Amino acid sequence: MNAKKTAAPPSPTKLFVLDTNVLMHDPISLFRFQEHDIYLPMVILEELDNNKKGMSEVARNARQASRFLDEIVSHAPNGIEDGISLTSHGTREATGRLFLQTKTINSELPASLAVGRADNQIIGVVKHLQEARSGRQVILVSKDINMRIKARALGLPAEDYFSDKALEDTDLLYTGLRALPADFWENHGAAMESWQHGGHTYYRLTGPLCESLFVNEFVYLEAGDRPFFATVKEQNGRTSVLATIRDYTQPKSNVWGITARNREQNFALNLLMNPDIDFVTLVGQAGTGKTLLTLATGLMQTLEHKLYTEIIMTRVTVPVGEDIGFLPGTEEEKMTPWMGALDDNLDILNNTDEEAGEWGRAATRDLIRSRIKVKSLNFMRGRTFINKYLIIDEAQNLTPKQMKTLITRAGPGTKVVCLGNISQIDTPYLTEGSSGLTYVVDRFKGWSHSGHVTLQRGERSRLADYAADAL
User: Fold this and answer.
1) How far is CA 362 from CA 75, 294, 356, 357, in A?
2) Rama region for 207: left / alpha / beta (φ>0; ψ in -120 to 50; rest)
3) What pLDDT is attached to residue 336?
4) In this structure, which topology does domain 170-244 adopt according to CATH?
5) pTM over 0.85
C-alpha cells in the first residue's frame, strides 16, 4: 500500500513583490518587511534607472534605492539566486531575504493587458511566483491604486505600502488640546497647589489624568461658572504643572489687529507668540485662520518685538519637486502664482489700522513687503536660516523626508510654523497617514519647544462654513 503524500506546510513568512513606486516613495522600504522576504522583478531596475536623473524627490529616492541595492548585492556571499540576507545591512530590523529576478518569466495574462507595460510585467511575475511557490503567500505591494485593482481582479493578493504611515487612523492624530472632565474642580481643586508668576497662574496637578498629558498640550473646561484654559508646562508621571494662558480674544490683546474668534485660535496664538516654542504645527480645514494667525504673529514679532529679522514663506508647488523655471522672472516672481493666500491675508492685515489713512497703509504695505521673502522648496537644500520666522504652507503635500529637509534648515533663533489640511493632499502616493505633516505632528508631540493645535471652526464666512459641511 502506497503511503499517502502530505503537502508541505505553508511557509510562515510571506514573499512580497515590490512595485517601483514603493522604492521611489521610500527607499528604506527594502528593510521594513521584518522577517518576510522581498522579490524585485528585473523591470524595476529599468524603471529606477529611467527615473534617477534630476533634482526632484523622486529622482533622489530612485538613486538612493539603487545605492541600497548595490550595497546589498555586492556583499552577497553566495550569489543572488538563493536570496540575499538583509540581516547584516545597517541597523534596521529586516531579517528576511532579498530575491532578484534572474530568468525570463513568461506568465499568461489576459489579452487586454498590454505586454510591454512595466505594471503588467510585474503582475505577470506575481502570477508566476504564486504558481511556482504554492507553499508561500505571494503578495504584490504597490502605491498605485489601479495596479492593486488589476492584480486583485486576476485573483492575486495586493496591498498598499503601510510602513511609511505615522498613523493607521488619522482620527487618532494628536490634536494638541483636550477637554477636562466636568467634575475637575470638585475632584482636584482643593488638592491643587497654585502660585502666580509672570502674569500667569500655575497649578500643580496630581492624579491618573496627568499620565496621558503632553507638554504644551492645552486643556480647557468651559462648562460651569469657572471656565479654565491652560497649557501643560511640565509632565512627570502622575504629576503635571498647568499654567493659565493669555486671552487673545480681547481687543486689548490683539496681534497686529487680529483677535482670536474661537477657543482653538486662542490656543494657536499662545503658541505662535511664545518665543520658547521653536516649532508649531497648525492643522485645519480651509478658512480656520491658519495663515492669517501665523502672518499676524510673524509681523508682530518681526516688526514690533524684533525677535526675527524677516519672515520667509514657502509652500509646495504641486507637482512636488518639479522645476518652476518655465515661469518668468526671479525665484520670488516665479513663486507668485502659488502665493495667492499670502496676498489675500496681507490685504486683511494691512487694513486693520483704520486710523492710519491711505498714505499710512501704503507705507505699512511697503514695510511688510520688505520683510517677507517668498522662497521655493526646490532650492532649500544647504540653506541655514538664522533668526527667521519660517512659514511652510500646504505642508500636507510634503513627504516625511522633505519635511525633515526643511525643518533641519532652522538655525539659532529661528521659528518654524507648518500649516496644512491633511484632507486636501495633492501629491501622488501620499495619504493622510503618510503625509509629512502627520508625521511631524506625531513625532514632535510632547517636546518642550514645540506645540500643535487642530483648528476646528471655520471663520471665513457663513457661506464658506456651510459649503465645507454640505459639500
Assistant:
1) 66, 22, 9, 9
2) left
3) 57
4) Elongation Factor Tu (Ef-tu); domain 3 (2.40.30)
5) no
